[in-house]
Design a protein that fits this description.
- It contains 26 helices and 40 strands.
- The chain is an alpha/beta fold.
- The protein folds into 5 domains: 171 residues, Gcn5-related N-acetyltransferase (GNAT) (Aminopeptidase); 288 residues, Rossmann fold; 147 residues, Succinyl-CoA synthetase domains (Rossmann fold); 74 residues, 2-Layer Sandwich (Dna Ligase, domain 1); 116 residues, D-amino Acid Aminotransferase, Chain A, domain 1 (2-Layer Sandwich), CATH 3.30.470.
- The strands form 7 sheets. The protein has an 8-stranded mixed β-sheet, sandwiched between helices. It has a 7-stranded mixed β-sheet with strand order 11-12-10-9-13-14-15, sandwiched between helices. It has a 7-stranded mixed β-sheet with strand order 17-16-19-18-20-21-22, with helices on both faces.
- β26, α17 and β27 form a beta-alpha-beta unit.
- α16 runs parallel beside α17 and α25 crosses α26.
- The longest helix is centred in the N-terminal third of the chain and has 23 residues.
- The two termini are 33 Å apart.
């Protein structure tokens, strides 16, 4: 079994049930004795029989003692709770004296769980099994066994639907199941699918609310509560609105109730607009009523300092303990433009037109500006969320919802920070394959440092952030204007199949601007078709259809600058008609308009702002080209084979973990690995590091040369020398003791050598291009892998590529080809191409290592000489520290938690 210390490794988690309600999962503790007895009393006799295979009406004192006292190693038990009530219990007990498949004992545990009948079918059993399997993997358990009565179909189904390879035998009327609990692709896929459905369901409960209580509704015209009631009613909300105000009889013509519990009908959603110190009472009131979700408009939380942060943490904890999801606090609200709902649960005075775009942002003030821009451009939204301090519901939750939302075809994100980049990356990667995501990442140099939702500080360079977006297929733009430019193209026109662009227009000057901008953006432009200043509708129609019919054209840019005293209506009609029927995207600079002008719109069948086939227009041709180039890159990403996540069979992960634990046992605060330890660590992942011998005297250098068999090199290993290729720090072709003595005297006697310079001897390596690999653990992003050519020029120019594990083979290939210096690897100016496959292999192996071992704070593999027949790793150094916290990245369902630490939230 594991030699980890037997302590609670922060296994507690907020989790989402199948219906989208929140529950808590944590290890059982002795103080749960009364709660466990109470839970068992609510379980039916039939469920008890299915668990214990016999009538078992009540738990004895001995049972309670045994069930509530566990060592969190060989015996682990979890409970799922709603507020303070246990609704499910699961446990595993290591089976002694059982040999595993590899001969190791104590790798098998018996698992069992029991769920209260009223909560069966909500996914409690699957959650318990997911978290027990994760705990088991951490503690060295490799296999679960379970005994189930054949008639217990619900339990059998839970095991079979987990994605594990379950084997079963029947003995004495009991079905015995056995399965290995390693994180296979199938099991991970099952867990991620359940995560997606649960998170989507929790958001759908908010967007599809059919009854809303506005808590803090006021008769004052300038109050937030009054504005919320007014916006719901005037927005023609199709559900029921209830005003809650303890001091009033009526608000805006609606009867007012003193509490939410006083509302005579069910309430799905509560909008909270009361002072921050009163919000806790509102949460308790809503929980007692059975409300599904909260939108907290109220300010006075984390944006106001340490006391506000504590209030925010308490608000989230209380809401989740009662199963409620929370948007806000300090937010603008949410909007759903679906015709059968028309929900404006926000402070925005007018509803945006319905459309196919979902929008997420944080800032309320920015949200208002966004909605104004959307309406002005005629873009149209399906749903909108301004999450404010983002204490609970985040952009990740919305992505999970929009993935399956038929009304949303394009996703827009304005991100002031990313609280869980690894989860964002994997969700966005999945969503991007079917729906484009356009994101503005503000606070690029500071991670946003939002006052309402603090995140861990990142030390990763901006190139790593850009790589995360690129790896996930996210279209990253620099500002809101560019976001809308790209969105109006994606929402109304088809994706291009390539980067070849035709330009048709009646202005030679504008056509030249388009051509220059397109070339700079990486698009291929055919000879512009200039129709002359007096070209009419017929001229445009012929030119447009001819260009689009060409197999050498993937997209079209139309430029129309009207002659004096000409409205351009006829040309607009032609452009709209061609755009509606074209299977290639068309963008335009039409009369300098921005958005989708009325003349270029196709009527939306659902009555939205503009339908598919509408032709977007841009005030400047450069904006049109920039948007088109972004969409071309996204289309290319969609059409690409993204590869697969493949775990190499030759990895010795267990040995690597044992090595790291051994080092940290001797140096609890961390240590730089010795030469032998670095060799052993890399060998665990199939990376062969050439041997070197550290030397301190001429005699040691000669002895090292003899030990290695001569034809060696003597190297000086100081950092200032590595970064200065013009300085002599390597003596090559040393073939005997005399040459080594000469090499030693010359290198050590050189005036540029420092007193702290290290020297070592190594066998001569084959020729090759020097490259560099590195892995690091970022406080925010977690594991990072980087690659580049070795040397000062690459460092100075920042020519380095990044990837966030886990990586596919396609990701690794993109990291190599994405370097500006990549042509040197592929055969530059007649030179031999190097073994790029070998480079890709090392990237994937290092990515697996970093994914497995968060304790590796940094590892540099440099220099590595790569030639046409492979590569040679010549030097490496590594540092390990106590394990980084990656609980949010486990393959089990858990909601992110903010923890108050001093004056910050993390």
């Amino acid at each position: 079994m594991s030699d980890l210390p037997v302590e609670d490794p922060q296994w507690d988690a907020d989790v989402l049930l199948k219906d989208g309600r929140v529950a808590q999962l944590r290890p059982i503790v002795p103080d749960d004795a009364e709660r466990l007895v109470d839970f068992y009393s609510r379980v039916s006799d039939e469920s008890k029989y299915m668990r214990f295979f016999a009538p078992y009406p009540k738990l004895s004192a001995k049972d309670v003692e045994r069930f509530t006292h566990v060592d969190l190693d060989r015996r682990v038990a979890f409970v799922v709770t709603l507020h303070d009530l246990i609704i499910g219990v699961g446990r595993y007990d290591v089976v002694p004296d059982v040999l595993g498949a590899d001969g190791a004992d104590d790798d098998t545990a018996e698992v069992a769980f029991l769920v209260e009948d009223a909560h069966q079918g909500r996914g409690v059993g699957q959650l318990l099994l997911e978290h027990l399997a994760q705990a088991g993997r951490e503690r060295g358990v490799r296999r679960f066994v379970a005994e189930v009565l054949p008639a217990n179909n619900r339990m059998l189904q839970i095991f079979r639907e987990m994605g594990y390879q379950v084997e079963g035998t029947v003995e004495g009327g009991v079905q015995r199941l056995a399965f290995r609990i390693q994180s296979t692709d199938t099991a991970i896929g099952v867990m991620r699918a359940r995560e997606q459905r649960a998170e989507a369901a929790s958001i759908e409960r908010i967007f599809a609310a059919r009854s809303i209580a506005v808590v803090g509704a006021s008769r004052r015209q300038d109050s937030i509560g009054q504005a919320m009631v007014r916006n719901l009613v005037l927005g023609d909300y199709q559900g029921s609105v209830y005003a809650v105000n303890s001091q009033a009889e009526a608000v805006s013509g609606l009867p007012a109730y003193k509490t939410v519990q006083d509302v005579p009908d069910d309430v799905d959603l509560a909008i909270v607009a009361v002072p921050s110190e009163s919000v806790t009472d509102v949460v308790l009131d809503c929980a007692a009523k059975g409300v599904h979700g909260l939108i907290v408009i109220s300010a006075g939380f984390a944006e106001e300092g340490s006391e506000g942060r504590k209030r925010q943490r308490a608000l989230v904890n209380l809401s989740r303990s009662y199963g409620l999801r929370l948007i806000g606090p300090n937010c603008l609200g949410v909007i759903n433009t679906a015709p059968d709902l028309q929900l404006n649960a926000s402070l925005a005075p007018t509803m945006p037109p319905p459309g196919r775009v979902g929008f997420f942002c944080q800032s309320g003030a920015l949200g208002t500006a966004i909605l104004e821009s959307v309406s002005r451009r005629g873009l149209g939204l399906s749903t909108f969320v301004s999450a404010g301090n983002r204490a609970d519901v985040s952009g990740n939750d919305l992505l999970q919802y929009w993935q399956e939302d038929a009304a949303t075809e394009v996703v827009l994100l304005y991100l002031e920070s990313i609280g869980n980049p690894r989860k964002f990356s994997r969700i966005a990667r999945r969503v991007s394959q079917t729906k484009p995501i356009v994101a503005v990442k503000s606070g690029r140099s500071t991670q946003g440092v939002p006052v309402g939702h603090a995140v861990k500080r990142s030390s990763a360079p901006q190139a790593a952030v850009d790589a995360m977006f690129r790896q996930a297929g996210v279209i990253q733009v620099d500002n809101l204007d560019e976001m809308f430019d790209v969105a109006q193209l994606l929402a109304h026109q088809p994706l291009p199949s390539g980067n070849r662009v035709a330009v048709v227009g009646n202005s030679d000057a504008m056509a030249l601007l388009v051509t220059d901008a397109a070339t700079e953006a990486g698009l291929q432009v055919s000879e512009p078709v200039s129709l002359g200043a007096n070209a009419g509708a017929d001229d445009f129609e012929i030119a447009l259809e001819t260009a689009l019919a060409s197999p050498d054209v993937d997209a079209l840019m139309a430029v129309y600058v009207p002659p004096i005293n000409t409205s351009g209506d006829e040309v607009a009609n032609v452009l709209a008609a061609v755009g509606e029927q074209s299977d290639k995207p068309i963008v335009s600079t039409f009369l300098g308009s921005e958005g989708v002008p009325e003349l270029l719109r196709v009527t939306d069948v659902q009555g939205g702002a503009a339908g598919r086939g509408s032709v977007p227009s841009y005030a400047a041709p450069e904006s049109a080209v920039r948007a088109l180039a972004r969409v071309v890159n996204y289309a290319e990403w969609c059409s690409r084979d993204h590869g697969t996540f493949q775990a190499a069979l030759d990895h010795r992960t267990g040995d690597a973990r044992a090595l790291v634990r051994e080092v940290l046992a001797e140096a609890p605060r961390g240590a730089i690995l010795s030469t032998e330890q670095v060799h052993d660590l890399l060998a665990c992942y199939g990376i062969d590091l050439w041997r070197w011998i550290n030397v301190h005297t001429r005699e040691e250098a000669i002895a090292a040369g003899e030990e290695l068999g001569w034809d060696v090199v003597l190297k000086a290993g100081s950092e200032h020398l590595r970064a200065r290729p013009d300085l002599i720090h390597i003596w090559r072709d040393v073939t005997d003791a005399d040459q080594m003595a000469q090499a030693w005297d010359d290198l050590t006697g050189w005036t540029g050598m420092r007193s702290d310079t290290r020297f070592f001897v190594q066998a001569a390596a084959p020729d090759g291009i020097p490259v560099s690999f590195a892995v690091t653990e970022d406080p925010l992003f977690g594991p990072l892998v980087s690659f580049g050519l070795a040397g000062a020029p690459s460092d100075l120019l920042g020519d380095r590529s990044y990837g966030i594990p886990p990586l596919t083979d396609s990701d690794a290939t993109s990291m190599i080809s994405g370097l500006r210096s990549a042509p040197l690897l592929y055969g530059y100016r007649g030179s031999d191409a190097v073994d790029v496959d070998a480079v890709q292999d090392v990237i994937l192996r290092l990515a697996s290592m970093k994914d497995d071992l968060p304790e590796i704070a940094e590892l540099d593999l440099e220099p590595v000489l790569v030639g046409k027949n492979g590569l040679t790793a010549l030097s490496a150094r590594a540092k390990v520290v106590p394990s980084a916290d990656r609980r949010g990245e486990w393959y089990v369902r858990r909601l992110s938690r903010q923890v108050v630490t001093g004056d910050t939230l993390t």
